[in-house]
């Protein structure tokens, strides 16, 4: 290191006239240079670094030098008198490259600073003491086989801890120590490349390469390090499949099952993975028609399976041309040839003693029901397929339930019944017939036989009904009660055409008649007017029904008809009693509304009766029977405008009064129905009928009417009424349940009048 001296200079100026010298304040300052110290010093004495010196120092020891900062007093020591600095320890640049220290000069006597504190640096100078290293080694690399010359494999990089800015200590050069002549390395970049072309993985797959890195640019005396690279050649499809031999033989018995494997064949491929995948195929029609081949993925074997049954008696040998082809072909290596190979397989069919063979796979037979035991059903036929044509015997599978109904002749295969069969019980029977050779009874074959039981007309028809037939009390003569149909257990040919009639041996039914609709249905029609469930609520109606079979069968069914008060809801009729019960489930509010309706109606009736009595009392002149009195008067009155005298309506004749009646053919507007109104009216009517002491207040008395047909005419100024015709009250039935009881009362009155 060049020594530097911090100096202190003194400036003196002489006067021009030779007078005494004038001393100026001296200007003190440090003169700096950079200190250097070599690393790794191993000498017996401390390594000299440099010297500090102030120009205030006269050499008399009055100046004391002190040092502070990095390593002061431990690594770096200063002589307080001379200012010499030494390194007391060996330094390592790779651990610390420089040190920052502070120097100061003091007056030894006064300890005053002669110079301000100054900073300087001691740099550790590098030497080549670190060899190159490969921190990521050893390495693993791959390269495809058959690669071209100079194909890049891997780039490696070494590191050197020495100073790259000083000398050649960190300048690295790469070289190959092992791996030639297959690989090479670039000296500057460290890139490893192939040194040979078309290296074959099948010949050699793994290579070990050792690379050296040397500093000092590779010169003598430089330090070096090495690493290992394990290089593997990866596979490409550069080898075709090959069969080990060209001709193979295989023995297959004729009893081999269709779809099962009968043999295997394999072609070898030196490649790996998908490059060695092989697809097998049978390329000649003789073999492809009878056999198939598939590839087993794990073993890459060709599995040969049977497509059709073999028959030794028909064909004893087969020749198969089998081809094995790579499924993944690399076009870069097409120049090597086609990637496939062929082999010939000769299959010999072996003769096997086979079980008998039936003429067909499934038999379908039929027999009429009720046929006597022993009736022939049909026959099955089986034969020995072998060349010796052994006799065959037949028997039924005893494990099946239907075997008790049939038997089979063991020599001819003829099947017969063991008892009459009923089609309505079981219409189809399934049985299994087994056949075996007389010479080899252990060899069995089976065939399924289905027996259909044919129908005969042996079941009479019946009326189909789900329950009682409802007859409404308001039914009229000719009214349809219900349409009935019939059912028959026999099949369509015999059981689905029906005709109906009432029994001819019974007297004519006065209540109902039956009409055959000629479409396998019949209509029940009422013959009389009105029914009463209180008088009779149940009627029985026997009906005879015939089927259309040969011969025709008939059956008699008795229907039960129940009489009910009905209310009409479209086509659906419901008994009034049931409807009332169903209404019992109404809410409390609805029940209260019904009760209020009854109370209000009663109040209206009472008020109406009271008013009628008050109006009629002025006309009564005696306590005697009112029906024997005539009201007399001699007052012309005030004419039609006099509305206070009396109700002139009572004097009008029936023909005029008829105009004020409600239209009977028009249904009045419905009001909320009170269930007990009809009962109230019935009670009041009965009381009036039982009272013989006076007329009913609602009767109409007509006077001043002398009758009709008199030559002199009527003496009354009022119009002559027409004769009242007999009324038909059937329209009340259509007005709903509110007028049902009124209709019944009129009907009873009509009946009494007729009687």
Describe it for me?
With 755 residues, the chain is mainly beta. 11% of the residues lie in helices and 32% in strands. The strands form 13 sheets. It has a four-stranded mixed beta sheet, with no helix packed on it. Strands 10-16-15-12 form a four-stranded mixed beta sheet, with no helix packed on it. The protein is elongated. The relative contact order is 0.05. Residues 1-31, 577-585, 619-629, 644-675 and 714-726 have low confidence and may be disordered.
Characteristic key phrases:
755 residues; mainly beta; four-stranded mixed beta sheet; 11% helix; cell membrane; glycoprotein; Catenin-bd_sf; repeat; transmembrane helix
Topology of helices and strands:
Layout: E1 12-13, E2 22-23, E3 35-38, E4 47-51, E5 63-69, E6 76-78, E7 84-87, E8 98-107, E9 118-125, E10 139-144, E11 152-155, E12 173-178, E13 183-185, E14 191-194, E15 206-214, E16 224-234, E17 247-253, E18 261-266, E19 278-282, H1 285-290, E20 291-296, E21 301-306, E22 317-326, E23 340-350, E24 357-358, E25 362-368, E26 376-379, E27 382-383, E28 392-396, E29 406-408, E30 414-417, E31 428-437, E32 444-454, E33 462-464, E34 469-472, E35 480-487, H2 492-495, E36 499-501, E37 512-516, E38 521-526, E39 538-546, E40 554-564, E41 566-569, E42 572-575, H3 576-583, H4 588-616, H5 654-657, H6 677-690, H7 740-754
Parallel strand pairs: 3-9, 10-16, 17-23, 25-32, 34-40
Antiparallel strand pairs: 1-2, 4-7, 5-8, 6-7, 8-9, 11-14, 12-15, 13-14, 15-16, 18-21, 19-22, 20-21, 22-23, 24-27, 26-30, 28-31, 29-30, 31-32, 33-35, 35-38, 36-39, 37-38, 39-40, 41-42
């Amino acid at each position: 290191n060049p020594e530097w001296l911090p100096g202190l200079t003194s400036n003196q100026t002489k006067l021009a006239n030779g007078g005494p010298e004038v001393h100026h304040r001296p200007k003190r300052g440090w003169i700096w240079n950079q200190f250097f110290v070599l690393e790794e010093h191993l000498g017996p004495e401390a390594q000299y670094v440099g010297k500090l010196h102030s120009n205030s120092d006269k050499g008399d020891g009055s100046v004391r030098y002190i040092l502070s900062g990095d390593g002061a007093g431990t690594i770096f020591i200063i002589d307080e008198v001379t200012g010499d600095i030494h390194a007391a320890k060996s330094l390592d640049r790779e651990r610390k490259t420089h040190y920052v220290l502070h120097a100061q000069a003091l007056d030894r006597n006064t300890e005053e600073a002669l110079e301000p504190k100054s900073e300087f640096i001691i740099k550790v100078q590098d030497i080549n003491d670190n060899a190159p290293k490969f921190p990521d080694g050893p390495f693993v690399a791959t390269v495809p086989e058959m690669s071209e010359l100079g194909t890049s494999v891997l780039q490696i990089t070494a590191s050197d801890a020495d100073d790259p800015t000083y000398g050649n200590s960190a300048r690295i050069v790469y070289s190959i120590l092992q791996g030639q002549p297959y690989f090479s390395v670039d000296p500057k970049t460290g890139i490893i490349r192939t040194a040979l072309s078309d290296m074959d993985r099948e010949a050699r797959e793994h290579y070990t390469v050792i690379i050296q890195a040397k500093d000092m640019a590779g010169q003598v005396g430089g330090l070096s390090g090495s690493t290992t690279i394990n290089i593997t050649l990866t596979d490409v499809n550069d080898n075709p499949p090959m069969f080990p031999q060209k001709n193979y033989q295989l023995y297959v018995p004729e009893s081999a099952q269709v779809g099962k494997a009968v043999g295997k064949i394999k072609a070898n491929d030196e490649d790996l993975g998908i490059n060695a995948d092989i697809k097998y195929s049978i390329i000649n029609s003789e073999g492809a028609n009878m056999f198939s081949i598939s590839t087993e993925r794990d073993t890459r074997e060709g599995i040969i399976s049977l497509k059709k049954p073999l028959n030794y008696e028909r064909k004893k040998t087969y020749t198969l041309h089998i081809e094995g082809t790579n499924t993944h072909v690399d076009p870069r290596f097409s120049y090597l040839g086609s990637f496939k190979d062929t082999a010939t397989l000769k299959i010999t069919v072996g003769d096997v003693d086979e079980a008998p063979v039936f003429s067909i796979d499934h038999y379908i037979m039929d027999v009429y029901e009720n046929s006597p035991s022993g009736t022939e059903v049909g026959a099955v036929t089986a034969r020995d397929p072998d060349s010796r044509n052994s006799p065959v015997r037949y028997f039924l599978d005893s494990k099946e339930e239907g075997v008790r109904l049939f038997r089979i002749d063991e020599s001819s295969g003829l099947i017969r019944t063991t008892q009459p069969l009923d089609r309505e019980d079981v219409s189809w029977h399934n049985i299994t017939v087994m056949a075996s050779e007389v010479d080899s009874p252990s060899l069995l074959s089976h065939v399924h036989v289905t027996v259909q039981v044919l129908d005969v007309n042996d079941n009479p028809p019946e009326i189909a009904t789900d329950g009682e037939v409802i007859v409404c009390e308001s039914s009229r003569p000719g009214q349809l009660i219900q349409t009935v149909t019939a059912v028959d257990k026999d099949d369509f040919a015999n059981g689905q055409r029906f005709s109906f009639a009432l029994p001819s041996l019974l007297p004519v039914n006065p209540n109902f008649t039956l009409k055959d609709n000629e479409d396998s249905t019949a209509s029940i029609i009422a013959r009389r007017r009105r029914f009463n469930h209180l008088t009779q609520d149940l009627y029985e109606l026997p009906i005879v029904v015939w089927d259309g079979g040969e011969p025709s069968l008939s059956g008699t069914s008795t229907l039960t008809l129940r009489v009910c008060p009905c209310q009409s809801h479209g086509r659906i009729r419901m008994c009034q009693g049931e409807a009332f019960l169903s209404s019992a489930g109404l809410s409390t509010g609805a029940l209260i509304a019904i009760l209020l309706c009854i109370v209000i109606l009663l109040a209206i009736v009472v008020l109406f009766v009271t008013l009628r009595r008050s109006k009629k009392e002025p006309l009564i002149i005696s306590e005697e029977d009112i029906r024997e009195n005539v009201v007399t008067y001699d007052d012309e009155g005030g004419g039609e405008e006099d509305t206070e005298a009396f109700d002139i309506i009572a004097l009008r004749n029936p023909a005029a009064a008829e105009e004020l009646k409600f239209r009977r053919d028009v249904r009045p507007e419905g009001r909320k129905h009170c269930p007990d109104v009809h009962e109230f009216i019935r009670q009041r009517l009965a009381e009036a009928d039982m009272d013989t002491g006076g007329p009913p207040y609602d009767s109409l008395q007509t006077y001043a009417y002398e009758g009709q047909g008199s030559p002199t005419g009527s003496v009354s100024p009022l119009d002559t009424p027409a004769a009242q015709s007999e009324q038909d009250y059937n329209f009340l039935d259509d007005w709903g349940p509110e007028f049902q009881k009124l209709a019944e009362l009129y009907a009873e009155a009509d009946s009494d009048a007729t009687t």
